[in-house]
Amino acid sequence: SQVNQARIKSRDARRLSDLKEMKLALSIFFDANKRYPTDAEWAADQLASESVPNCNGKRCMPLAPKDPRGGARYPYYLCSEIMYHLGANLEIKNNPILRDDYDAVGSLPTECGATTIDSPDVDGCANETGRYCYDTTP
What we know:
By secondary structure, the chain is an alpha+beta fold. The protein has helices at about 1-35, 40-45, 105; strands at about 75-80, 85-90, 130-135. A 3-stranded antiparallel β-sheet has the order 1-2-3, covered by helices on one side. It starts with a helix and ends with a strand.
């Protein structure tokens, strides 16, 4: 139905907006700490925490966003102190933004070679059925 399609488009727009917000927060974290957060810090929602390391005593972002459908954490992988790999699972297969993502295979910097984000667009960032991986780096 049209209402369902509108909901799906809205969720995908929210995911892309969340990624932009997280990339900004990651930049702020990097400026404060001279590195990106570890996978464990990401899992602990460090960007939304007031504990150390943080962003000079403040939260890097107000809340750690989660996927609007199911509430899963967005996939993140620390490649090196100066490189990360971040993803979101979109629901629209032919979303034009998928033409402009990184698609880890062959295009990510070598330090991201062991990323846990499986990012070809045809399936989700971790092989989620019916989802399409949009992935990005700094």
